[in-house]
Amino acid sequence: LRSAAVDRAVLPLAMPLWVDTTDVYDRPLRRLVLAQDTGADITGARHVDLYFGWGAQAAALAGPMHANGALYVLLPRPVEGPATAR
Fold first, then answer.
1. Which of 1, 6, 67, 82 could cross-link with 11 by S-S, CB 3.0 to 4.6 Å?
2. CA neighbor of 22 nearest in space, from 57, 70, 60, 54
3. Could you tell me which of 19, 65, 11, 61 has the C-alpha nearest to residue 35?
4. Which residues are registered as beta bridge partners of 48?
5. Segments making up each domain of the chain, as ranges
6. Which residues does the UniProt record annotate as the domain 3D (predicted)?
7. Would you place residue 85 in the very low, low, confident or very high pLDDT band (cuts 50, 70, 90)?
8. Residue 82 has pLDDT above 80, yes or no
9. Residues of 2-28 as b/e, b for ≥16 C-beta within 10 angstroms?
């Protein structure tokens, strides 16, 4: 679980995101993921699909996953003054 599908009108691809939610067993699910995909049903800022992998085990985790949670967009700090190489 390190990839998410997003609406590109809201978030650009390759954006690092912090996910804070629960899994289908109500266990905490806190992960750093990258916005790496899009989808026709993913519209707006309130919907993100998390990639759980492939196979029966991934389908068992991803299929019933409809949890609310928090999504944080990770942005670099602004550079103050001219940037210099060290």
1. 6
2. 70
3. 11
4. none
5. 3-73
6. 2-74
7. low
8. no
9. eebbbbeebbeeebebebebebeeeee
Q: Which residue has the tokens 């590109």?
A: 8
Whole-prediction pTM: 0.80
pLDDT in tens, 28-69: 999 999 999 998 889 998 899 999 899 999 888 888 888 899
Contact 19, 71 (CB under 8 A): yes
pLDDT the model gives residue 61: 85
Residues whose CB falls within 8 Å of the CB of residue 17, separated by 6 or more in sequence, listed in order = 4, 6, 11, 32, 33, 34, 35, 48, 71, 72, 73, 74
Among 17, 14, 23, which Cα is nearest to 48's? Answer: 17
